[in-house]
Amino acid sequence: MRKPSPVADLRGASRLAVELTVLVSHVVETMHHNIARRPGPLGRGTLAPTTGLKGFVYRSVQGVTRLVGNTIDTALAPLVPMLADAPDWPGRERVVCALNGVLGDQLAEHGNPLAIAMQLRRNGTQLALDRGGLAAQVPTPSPRVIVMVHGLCMSDMMWERDSHDHGRQLARDLDADVVCLRYNTGRHVSTSGAAFANLLESLVDAWPVPVASLTLIGHSMGGLVMRAACATGRAAGHAWLRRLRALVFLGTPHQGAPLERGGHGIDTLLGASPYTRAFTHLSRLRSAGITDMRYGSVLDEDWHGRDRFARGGYRRVVAPLPAGVPAFAIAGSLSKRIGAGARAPRGDGLVPVASALGIHADAARSLGIPAARQFVVPGTGHLDLLSSTAVYQRLHRWLTTGDESPVRSPAR
């Protein structure tokens, strides 16, 4: 796979700038329209465009902006293949991954070159999912395959933290091959999960030796994508599910994340007055992947045909874990002390402990992961789960021996 050209990045940035400029003009137009109507502070607002001369002016501004953007895009297009082999600019990976997390669904919808295409990778290189290609890329394959799935605004290149990489270390210690998923984290979790399930089917079918053991390890949103893939694989009768031996979740918001629920609350407040309603244009920029984190949604039925920004915009369909596959959950906690005599542990800064362990006040919504397969790491933030020695030791023990002795500090 050819590396993205700096000119392709520039085209993507130009398109994004045009779309954001048009969006800002919509915000100004909506404010103008609502103020001109002179409603009361809690009166009924509108998101409808202005009409008459004012409407003509706004349509002209938006049209000229798009025309200029299209002209720039057309002028840059011939330069893309000429600079395809130029080195990446510093920090590109993190910037592009962050953009995909926040705006990835829109980047994909508009065909923006900055949109990340899903692929399975090994040592930073895309895998060819055919027998000949894989045999050349993996000359000494192991029948044990571990697939790592990154979280929101991250990529397969970001598993290493503080000079440690759980996947790379597991590959050495367990004599396994580690493959990483790279995907656009701004798309709906269920959409990413369905595509991931199909890639896993191709991977298992094309692996140079029969796959005896498949393990999926997901951090944050990655765990939700794994669950969505399992739902798709089960419905499609995929063969890879029969090789699945373990699901491991690191800080996964199975029951949602308070930060996104707070964002949804801000939507509601902004929409309460006609004088602030225009700003809902901006709050609705956040991606489908982010809003899926409100309740940890993993199925199409949760959002399809619904306004995900509206009150009650998500259904909350229960998605059980695949039967017969051991699932393990690790939660980080900023609390320094947990267990008997301590207060209920705080979350990792982004995900509450109960959510990471799949626990819900309504037993029907709990994932039912046994306490022996839960682990809470004190003094550990969300990203610190990636470099924690305690986390790696637990992963190694679980995946080596299947040891399920209860943790010293029972989860709450």
Number of helices: 13
How far apart are the first and last residues' alpha carbons, in Å?
Answer: 46 Å
Biggest sheet, open or closed, and with what strands and sense? 8 strands, mixed
How much of the sequence is in beta strands? 5-15%
Determine the fraction of residues in helical runs and give it as a percent range: 40-55%
Integer-rounded radius of gyration: 23 Å
Average the pLDDT over all residues and give the rounded result: 82
Q: What shape does the CA trace take?
A: globular
List unreliable stretches of 5+ residues. 269-273, 404-412
Order of helices and strands: HHHEEHEHEHEHHEHHHEHEH
Strand line-up of the largest beta sheet: 2-1-4-3-5-6-7-8
The number of strands is 8
Question: Structural class, please?
Answer: alpha/beta
List key phrases describing it.
single chain, 412 residues, globular, 8-stranded mixed β-sheet, 13 helices
Summarize the structure.
This protein is α/β, with parallel strands linked by helices.
